Amino acid sequence: MEKPHQHGETWRNLINMEKHGETSSTWRNMEKPHQHGETWRNRINMEKHGETASTWRSVEKPHQHGETWRNCINMEKHGETASTWRNMEKPHQHGEAWRNRINMKIQGETASTWRNMEKLHQHGETTSTWRNVINMEKHGETASTWRNMEKPHQHGEAWRNRINMEKHGETASTWRSMEKPHQHGETWRNRINMEKHGETAST
Which domain of life is it from (predicted)? Predict the structure, then answer.
């Protein structure tokens, strides 16, 4: 038979292999795990996690994206498969690791919807603050309506202040349509105070 040591193994290791259901012929015929930086022992560990050498060879190797096959196993614990993870746009292309994608799902976001929405960082937001859009939606705001409206921070206000405005009966559309209070040295809060005294911005 083909000598085991031709692949860096002694015959004693071949005996150990056969204890795990491997024969020297099948081991020679399959693509050798160590060609991908794995020894046959690691292949055995892989199979304990439901991976076979054939499927592992056939899938795009996780380490091609900076992940080891062990991390692929962790992914699958979260309902991710190596194939779906490869096919989706990789979260780390936006500065996020796949683990953060899992966190996104806890917040009700999927990678597909997160990619499809206009990226927050295009408006000066970083991926670390994308969770704030989730907070926005708790206040009845969606990322699309927030992008489409005139951005409050263009007038020195954060989106949270817009929420405060609406508590006072102001909407972003009416606030944009009226002459901006700060053009007269007033903030929107002062406009509210004005109206308490019977004054309107127009008068």
Answer: Eukaryota
* Residue that is written with structure tokens 């022992």 in the block: 41
Whether the predicted pLDDT of 19 surpasses 50: yes
The per-residue pLDDT for range 46-61, each reduced to its tens digit, is 555 455 544 444 343 4
**How many of the other CB atoms lie within 10 Å of CB of 57?**
14
Does the reported pTM lie above 0.85? no
- Concatenating the DSSP letter of every residue in the chain gives ---GGGGT--HHHHHHHHHTT--HHHHHHSPPGGGGT--HHHHHHHHHTT--HHHHHHSPPGGGGT--HHHHHHHHHTT--HHHHHHSPPGGGGT--HHHHHHHHHTT--HHHHHHSPPGGGGT--GGGTHHHHHHHHTT--HHHHHHSPPGGGGT--HHHHHHHHHTT--HHHHHHSPPGGGGT--HHHHHHHHHTT--S--
**Rounded to an integer, what distance in angstroms lies between the CA atom of residue 172 and that of residue 124?**
20
Q: How many CA atoms lie within 13 A of 128 on its CB side?
A: 0
State the amino acid at position 41 in one-letter form. R
- Residue 27: other Cβ atoms inside 10 A: 20
What pLDDT does residue 166 have?
Answer: 52
User: pLDDT by residue (tens digit) across 58-97?
Assistant: 343 444 433 344 444 444 444 455 444 443 334 444 333 4
